[in-house]
Amino acid sequence: MLAKMTSKNQLTLPKSIVSQFPGSQYFDVRAEYGRIILEPVNTKPLSAVHEKLEALGISEDDVGEAVKWSRR
Predict the structure, then answer these.
(1) Which end of the chain is more exposed for a tag (fewer CB within 10 A), N or C?
(2) Could you give the CA distance from residue 66 to residue 7 in angstroms, rounded to a whole number?
(3) What is d(CA 12, CA 23) in angstroms, rounded to the nearest whole number?
(4) Do 13 and 3 meet the contact criterion of CB atoms below 8 Å apart?
């Protein structure tokens, strides 16, 4: 299948391809070996992250300490 790039560097993906990734609005884009690779990224609302951290018993202070540790 072909996709044409517009003068504004935009591509329209064929419907038959996009339909294989329902709900995907964001794609990770990278170049590898002369090819453009698109991978769907499923984003979650920030509230889902907070809920997961709470379920795991991880506090905001724990996250802050982890960030400080990783930056050393």
Answers:
(1) C
(2) 44
(3) 16
(4) yes
Question: 24: closest CA among 33, 11, 13?
Answer: 13
Query: Measured between alpha carbons, how far is 62 from 18 in angstroms, rounded to an integer?
Result: 39
pLDDT at 7 over 90: yes
What pLDDT score does 43 carry? 79
DSSP state string for 31-67: EETTEEEEEEE----HHHHHHHHHHTT--HHHHHHHH
Phi–psi pair at 35, nearest 5 degrees: -120, 150
Q: How far from 70 is each of 1, 25, 57, 59, 63, CA to CA, in Å?
A: 44, 31, 20, 17, 11
Residue whose tokens read 């930056």: 71
